[in-house]
Amino acid sequence: MADTQASAERRRVLIAEDEALIRLDLAEMLVEEGYDVVGEAGDGETAVRLAEDLIPDLVILDIKMPIMDGLAAAERIAGGRIAPVVILTAFSQRDLVERARAAGAMAYLVKPFQKSDLVPAIEIALSRYSEISALETEVAGLTDRLETRKSVERAKGELMTKFSMTEPQAFKWIQRTAMDHRMTMREVADRILAEGQEPSAEVQPPQ
């Protein structure tokens, strides 16, 4: 039973990296950390096609790839809401990080990276993607969506600072409170921000 449950929770990852040795090392790291590598690609175009076919839980893309680079592939994959994206970048390419974020990447890894860097980047990407998906489900209009994200980001910061929550804990608290009180996440976030140091009992985080 435990084995079945663990298998069901394994995240399915697609890797796109044109250097075969790095791709092999990355796949080995992922498997050792309990992820399932469901596909590998050596160029961005193949990565997009595999992402559309396999619908993985996460896609890891190198920036520099032939045919279609990682930024263009990230725009297609993240823009199509197929999966969250982690970008691989060489240290000298760190100026491309902002472009990667603009393309929809949720996190990035600077090469050469260690196995200890890999899991946090993946979990950040999955967490941020989950948050954005939840907010987009709640709010239809683009302008309202952006304003909602701003309010929730600021409210998360308040909760993290005042109650020593992690970022995922703060978001889950806002999400749960909204459901419990039949409010939107924007309303909960705005109330946290408006009440400053002392949130009301209705939306009081645990001490």
From TrEMBL:
<dbReference type="Pfam" id="PF00072">
    <property type="entry name" value="Response_reg"/>
</dbReference>
<dbReference type="InterPro" id="IPR008327">
    <property type="entry name" value="Sig_transdc_resp-reg_antiterm"/>
</dbReference>
<dbReference type="InterPro" id="IPR036388">
    <property type="entry name" value="WH-like_DNA-bd_sf"/>
</dbReference>
<dbReference type="InterPro" id="IPR011006">
    <property type="entry name" value="CheY-like_superfamily"/>
</dbReference>
<keyword id="KW-0597">Phosphoprotein</keyword>
<dbReference type="GO" id="GO:0000160">
    <property type="term" value="P:phosphorelay signal transduction system"/>
</dbReference>
<protein>
    <submittedName>
        <fullName>Transcriptional regulator</fullName>
    </submittedName>
</protein>
<dbReference type="GO" id="GO:0003723">
    <property type="term" value="F:RNA binding"/>
</dbReference>
<dbReference type="InterPro" id="IPR005561">
    <property type="entry name" value="ANTAR"/>
</dbReference>
<dbReference type="InterPro" id="IPR001789">
    <property type="entry name" value="Sig_transdc_resp-reg_receiver"/>
</dbReference>
<feature type="domain" description="Response regulatory">
    <location>
        <begin position="12"/>
        <end position="126"/>
    </location>
</feature>
<feature type="domain" description="ANTAR">
    <location>
        <begin position="132"/>
        <end position="193"/>
    </location>
</feature>
<feature type="modified residue" description="4-aspartylphosphate">
    <location>
        <position position="62"/>
    </location>
</feature>
<dbReference type="Pfam" id="PF03861">
    <property type="entry name" value="ANTAR"/>
</dbReference>
